[in-house]
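**Sequence, structure tokens**
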Amino acid sequence: MSVLFCDTNCELWHTTAKDLGLEVIRMPYTLDGTEYYYDLGEKTDFKFFFSRLRDKATAITSALNEYNYTEYFEPWFMKGEDIFYISFSHKMSATFNSMQRAVDALLEKYPERKFTVFDTKGISLAAGIQVYYAAKLHQAGASDEEMLALLNNLRDRAVCFFVVDDLQFLKRGGRISAAAANIGTLFGVKPILTFKDGVIINSAKVQGRKIAFSRMLKEYEMNHCADYTDVWIVGADCDDDCVAMEERIKAITPDVVVHRQSVGPVIGSHCGPDTVGLIFIKKQ
């Protein structure tokens, strides 16, 4: 059984990651010219971060380099351990080119070791929900092959719907076109966004934030799989919206466990304040 890795772009809360025994790769972001590495909320001042974005501060993200990955992985290879890394979408960052170079060099040095990487084709809790259930299986003593089978089953069933308040953040990060951002802003359109094949796509376009939330909840009501009782709500400094969504989810499915937490600074740099996301496993 391998050592299980994830990265902070999965956005599981720091206590959850520790409880699950996960090794965590910290992803970088820069705010006001200072670089930080996200800690899954352990010491992060979310209010400060999003208040700076509201004040038009500059926040950018960057990729880890080959040396960073070597520092994470080599100590485990030196101990004679194999590694299983559940990652965010490879289409969303060039960081995986650096990772592959580091891994190739390490496997030449430690040819008896094995490295497995699973691309969740999502980010934030769209990746994190897959990490969560795989880590539960890992803790129960499952083999790498059993974990991989679960992940292959969950990848296309891990649903993340999210609504951003200001499309210009996604435009600046290259996630949507300038034309789409400008038209949406001009006409008050709230696209309900999701992931497909590792990239962000439009699921629907509606007029107004409340209608967007209602549409997301309707999708949840129709498609949520009762066998998976954990649901995540993430918000970017918009607690009232997240509380209201949690209440409506509990009214639909009283027995689910709702995890409510903040969007992290890496993801927040691209989506901006007042983003709300709903993440669950859909029916087979």
